[in-house]
Amino acid sequence: MNTFDVETRLKNARGVAAAPRSIVDDVMRQLPALPPKPALLEIFRRTSPRRTLDVASLLPWIDAAAGVRREPRSRRFKRICARPISVGLGASLLVVIGVWAWTMRPTSLVAQAARELQRAASYRCATTMVGPDGRLIDRGIIYWSPPGSVRIKMLKDEQVVTDDIHPASQPGIEVDHEKKSFRRVAAYRGTLPPLLTMLEKLSGFRGEADRNLGRSRINDMELQGFEIAASKIDRNVPENHKLRLWIDTQSKRPARIEYERPAFAETDDPLTVRLDDFVWDEPTDNWFVVEPPAGYADATLKPSKLDETTKQIVLGLRTYAKYSDGHYPHVKLVYGDVTRDELRKMAGIKTREDMQKPAYKECLDATWGFAAINTIQRENQDSVYYGQTVGPNDREKVLFRWKLETGDYQVIFGDLHHETVSPQHLKELERK
Amino acid sequence: MRPSSNRDVTTSETRSEQPDEHLIREVLAGNRDAYADLVQRYERQVHAAGWAILRNHEAAEDVTQEAFIKAYGKLATLRVHGGFGPWLLTIVRRIALDRARTKNRLVLVSALPEMPSLDATAEEDAALVLSAVAKLHDRDQQVVLLRYFDDLAIADIAALLNCPVGTVTKRLSRALTRLRDALKEIS
Q1: pLDDT tops 50 at residue B14
Q2: pLDDT tens-place string over residues A60-99
Q3: Torsion of CA A272, A277, A281, A282, to 10 degrees
Q4: How far is B165 from chain A (nearest CA, A)?
Q5: How far apart are CA A224 and CA B37, in angstroms?
Q6: How far does B148 lie from chain A, in Å, by closest CA?
Q7: What one-character DSSP code corresponds to residue A173?
Q8: Among B133, B107, B109, which residue's Cα sits nearest to residue B51?
Q9: What is the band of B12 on the pLDDT scale with cuts at 50, 70, 90?
Q10: pLDDT band at B84 (very low <50, low <70, confident <90, very high)
């Protein structure tokens, strides 16, 4: 039983539930350029040949624009019903509704596909990574089942070479069939790998596509294509990454998903990851078994020492701040490759010649730190990165923290000094 | 580089002092920037309402953004402009409940509580208190959230809601009594 006074409890609740950052800019960026859409009746008013009809009082939108005071709803309704509505008006309204329904159609198909992705009991699909000029880089098969179980098989000459199995919230296994070895890996308790995070977020996406790619026919399926800026779905990826979604117009399920990461410099190649050949709602009984094949050697990695990991992270963030003019990655989830690309760009590594510069070596060293943050965020649900609000001058503020096996927390502060602290002390630090 | 927010959620210095009605009229008349003041005014309350249901800051932030965007699209349908705050809270709760229902099926990895073991009691209590706040009348709820989540003085709340100071004091006192009773009942 809680004996605190209600005011204290409200203040405490604020401490726990308060937003960690302002979202004003994010919201304003996503708002449509136009003012809020007036209701259909306003469109009707504009197109009506009987412009004298007082439908202004129907709409708060018009109230606001014209300062009209409304009369009581019941009287207004009776008055409007009493007036004759011409056939022309009705026809205009139907046309407007028709146009409106037609323009809304592509958005609703994306939303339906997202919902289907959300409802799926399981799916299996082929994955293909394609480089410049359509050059095949890798092929594999992805298996997914709620709540977040994932298996990825990579293929070479139609043979499975690696098989990574991650049952939801449980330790996984990564089998290397070429080396005939396996390693046990920690459960994904934080976030999923980037592409799967994207799919997971796509399932909750209710926004609009940026571009309608038209219709196409693949494997006897009539598909409708859409392109969406990947940052609209996952705010942690750059704005020039694209997601293309091809939806089966019959089942409303995604039939092909393409994630395109453009080259950020001459030294880099663009990459497109394609998912297709989806098979939905198969039984998953044998998909996520974490037993190694008989006779395979155990190559499980020893966990890296805390000091070493902290040192890598500090180096990565220090290098990033050096080249970014004094800030850390402005994201919540630090993706190793995305952050590496940003850093290289900021450090001026654009051509093959630039790879001879000392800055290139700095970027390489820093990448280990970003990968370490990503691994911690993936495996440790008690990790939080505050790079969006904490900078190098914030000596007292927590920049990144994660929970250790001892129950204490490892904390890296804004100025990159670090400490191991108790949960109580962390709470005090995070109030700052 | 991605644009970043330079605003600090903990300050209210940049907050417009115009009442909601005025800001909404400006937005509807085409001044899109006036909406930023509304977002800044209500983001903490909306986030808290989302958090109370989802218990995760990232998920709460997502639903907060979604609620503001949805509210913007439907702003013309809001009949009583002074009721923007309660209306927004209804929207965010609906979205968050929808998301929570989905979460039960998917158990999104990214939506797991951020620090369940850090201070479970404080978290539990915060959720309890916020759920009791959600059950108050719209107007009472708004006053409580403005007072305790936005740290606004009574006079500022009165100016925002376009009502006398005495009305705010009365509402706040009534709301706290109801909250106290509700929480006592739960305990």
Answers
A1: no
A2: 444 444 444 445 566 666 655 555 555 667 777 888 887 7
A3: -120
A4: 19
A5: 39
A6: 6
A7: E
A8: B133
A9: very low
A10: confident
Tokens for A402?
A: 């994660």
The residues pairing with A138 across neighbouring beta strands, listed in sequence order, are A129
CA distance A364 to chain B (A): 20
| CB proximity under 8 Å: A 324-353 to B | 324, 327, 330-332, 342
Provide ipTM, 2 decimals: 0.73
CB-based contact B69 A31, cutoff 8 Å = yes
Contact between A18 and B27 using a beta-carbon 8 Å cutoff = no
Please give the biggest Cα pair distance in chain A: 87
Q: Which two tokens stand for residue A301?
A: 């990695």
What Å distances lie between residue A110 and A104, A223, A228, CA to CA?
11, 12, 10
Rounded Cα distance, A117 and A41, in Å = 35
Q: Which two tokens stand for residue A115?
A: 């919902």
Interface test with A, best of B38, B55, B78, B108 (most A CBs within 10 A): B108
- Asked if B134 reaches chain A (Cβ–Cβ under 8 Å), the answer is no
Residue closest to B146 by CA, chosen among A4, A12, A10: A10
B33 pLDDT higher than 90: no
Range scoring the smallest mean pLDDT among A71-80, A309-318, A388-397 = A71-80
